[in-house]
Design a protein that fits this description.
Elements lengths: L1 H8 L2 H12 L8 E3 L6 E5 L2 E4 H19 L5 H7 L1 H21 L6 H9 L13 H11 L3 H22 L6 H12 L1 E9 L12 H10 L9 E9 L1 H4 L9 H11 L4 E2 L2 E9 L14 H7 L5 E7 L6 H7 L8 E4 L5 E10 L2 E2 L2 H33 L4 H8 L3 E6 L17 H10 L9 E4 L2 E11 L6 H33 L4 H7 L5 E2 L15 H7 L7 E5 L5 E10 L7 H27 L1 E4 H7 L2 H4 L2
Parallel strand pairs: 1-18
Antiparallel strand pairs: 2-3, 2-18, 4-15, 4-17, 5-12, 5-14, 6-11, 7-8, 7-10, 9-10, 13-14, 16-17
Helix pairs in contact: 3-5, 5-8, 5-21, 10-18, 12-15
């Protein structure tokens, strides 16, 4: 599908359609496209601006999601055909509209409440399950947010939640709907059944060559090679440069850096901390002065809780911290007060703190100095590489000149073969693969810019188009497929004969015994099945399609044919559980909220900065 979209997007009609889609986003409630709102504003909802940075972040998230689902990163032109930019603008516009309404009514969230929300977010929890500042900063950095942007997002989310709860929290679903859903979820069926597989039919004779040729002709689409593109690929990053001999610091430089930074080259003392709670006071007698904590815990029949290796500042319980870091040696312990009884705190390992020795610091210093040198040289190396590329110098020669790692990869359209070149991260493979399959043989391939300091270069050296495979190439596979098809035909015929006998009035037990099958009685099952591969959800759906005393056949998740007879139908009794009521209430509330937001967004109006959107998506350059 992506190949078709790629070819279409490159035609004049595709580019024209992309322009029309840009202007005509009415399907998303976006009807007013204007020329300019300022270079940093991509759209405006009422008085609230949607910045290009906000759009780019949300747009990239959508592209990444699309790539994960399809295995290929779409170009901006293809994204336009799929309506991704319009969807993103529609979502951002809805958020802006509700935020504007909340602010106009003075709805907000205090800094104190925001702090509580952050502290309770499990994404920011450290080793002890409590808020960790370092983890918080790391998660934000990975997501590409500043603290100010993150808190703004959380404030907006809190306002939206307050609006939704304030307007629609009292929505009560009809009792009839609750009863129907309860019946749907909790009615049960009991069946007797047996399964048929390849051992249930006569042996299939070996196929003749004529059989195989005929099967291959009829199923040729199942026996084709994938288009394969062979490329010489090279990545250029500061991290790669830093691994090369030319960038390694001298021993004198390392020692000078150590002397210069010695005061900051310290490590914090860490201790492996474990704890047992003496819920039974009599267990305290096992812990005697001068003994080993783990031995005593084992003798007492207690299993310690292991907190891992922690610095004192990592321990949020002051009593625990003071006790653990007051223990004089490894293996020792201290007994302290606790909520549910006394606690025994043990230390099994101590990593001393203080100034890091030269030998300890050397690997880190080497890496730091090499990376600093590589970063300083990166722009110059990149310029040289680009100049050589413009002069049609092969990638192999460029890689050899700069001593950069090179790989020759026979690439298919899923990009999995790029795993042979670790310098390209898994998340970036779709982007590189898309570029390779857009390239032309004997033409200079464009640079694949992963980031400002991460570029991938490649030469397309060979294209092997997808083709039909010959019988000689796939004879064993065709033989196996032919046999499987004949077996399946025999099983279908047997199942049809069974259903015909049941239609004639023969009992299920007789039908089973005549075929040396034992009819198994199932426990009562819901539409979820019994969580096995036999009576799974798909089989249960077939069983629930008819009523009591019905019979039929289906295929279970193991690929076996299952013949069944419904022996009992039991309607759900009483009221549904809380999950059903919550589901109906949330569904009704979300539906009303969605309609409310759409109306609110349309009332405030959306204005699109066409110039900023085109520049963000590089549509102007792609149309040339």
């Amino acid at each position: 599908m992506l190949k078709l979209m790629r070819r279409f997007a490159s035609t004049w009609l595709g580019k024209l359609l992309g322009g029309l889609l840009l202007v005509g986003m009415a399907a998303f409630g976006i009807s007013n496209v204007i020329v300019d709102l300022g270079s940093n504003t991509l759209a405006r909802v009422g008085d609230d601006d949607i910045t290009t940075a906000q759009f780019q972040r949300a747009y990239q998230q959508q592209l990444n999601q699309f790539a994960q689902q399809t295995g290929q990163m779409p170009t901006n032109q293809q994204a336009m055909q799929f309506g991704i930019p319009g969807t993103v603008i529609g979502q951002l516009a809805s958020d802006a509209a509700i935020n504007h309404l909340a602010l106009s009514y003075g709805i907000g969230v205090s800094d104190a409440q925001l702090a509580v929300m952050v502290r309770n977010d499990p994404n920011f929890a450290g080793n002890l399950g409590t808020f960790d500042r370092g983890q918080f900063e790391s998660v934000l950095q990975q997501a590409g947010y500043t603290e100010a942007e993150y808190f703004d997002l959380q404030s907006r989310a809190a306002r939206r939640e307050q609006i939704a709860i304030g307007l629609f929290d009292g929505v009560t679903p009809p009792k009839t709907a609750e009863n129907l859903l309860n019946r749907y979820r909790n009615d049960t069926r009991t069946v007797e059944y047996f399964t048929l597989n390849a051992t249930s039919v006569s042996d299939i004779p070996d196929p003749t060559d004529a059989d195989l040729k005929a099967y291959l002709t009829a199923h040729q689409t199942d026996f084709r090679t994938k288009e394969t593109r062979t490329v010489d690929v090279m990545a250029l990053t500061p991290d790669l440069l830093a691994t090369l001999p030319d960038y390694q610091p001298s021993e004198d430089a390392i020692k000078a850096e150590y002397d210069r930074t010695k005061s900051s080259l310290t490590k914090t003392e860490k201790r492996d901390i474990q704890q047992v709670v003496l819920s039974d006071p009599s267990k305290e007698q096992f812990f005697k002065p001068g003994t080993n904590f783990l031995d005593d815990a084992k003798a007492a029949g207690l299993t310690p809780t292991d907190f891992g290796s922690l610095a004192k500042t990592d321990v949020t319980d002051p009593s625990l911290a003071d006790a653990a870091f007051g223990i004089p040696s490894e293996g020792s312990f201290a007994i302290i007060a606790g909520v549910g009884g006394k606690r025994v705190v043990g230390v099994t390992k101590i990593e001393g703190g203080g100034t890091i020795s030269y030998d300890e610091a050397k690997p880190r210093l080497v890496k730091t100095l090499a990376l600093a040198k590589a970063k300083a040289a990166y722009a110059d190396v990149q310029d040289q590489v680009e100049s050589l590329r413009a002069g049609l110098k092969p990638i192999k020669d460029i890689a050899a000149r700069f001593k950069l790692p090179l790989a020759t990869v026979a690439l298919t359209n899923d990009g999995s073969e790029l795993s042979a070149y670790p310098a390209i991260a898994e998340a970036d493979r779709p982007k590189v693969t898309t570029a390779v399959f857009a390239a032309k043989e004997s033409k200079l391939a464009p640079t694949v810019a992963i980031s400002a300091t991460d570029n991938v270069y490649f030469d397309l050296t060979k294209v092997d188009p997808a083709r039909d495979q010959t019988l000689d190439e796939v004879k064993d596979k065709v033989s196996a497929a032919w046999t499987a098809a004949k077996t399946d035909d025999a099983l279908k015929a047997e199942v049809a004969a069974i259903i015909k006998e049941l239609d004639s009035g023969k009992s299920f037990q007789d039908v089973a015994s005549e075929r040396n099958q034992f009819a198994t009685i199932s426990p009562p099952i819901t539409r979820d099945g019994d969580k096995t591969s036999v009576l799974g959800q798909q089989v249960a759906a077939q069983i629930f399609a008819s009523g009591a005393n019905s019979y039929g056949s289906t295929v279970d998740t193991d690929g076996e044919y299952l013949v069944y007879h419904v022996t009992d139908v039991t309607p759900a009794q009483g009221k549904g559980d809380k999950n059903i009521a919550d589901f109906l209430m949330n569904s009704q509330r979300n539906g009303l909220y969605s309609e409310f937001i759409t109306g609110l967004r349309d009332e405030q109006g959306i204005k699109i900065n066409q110039q900023a959107l085109s520049q963000t998506l590089n549509l102007d350059q792609q149309a040339q």
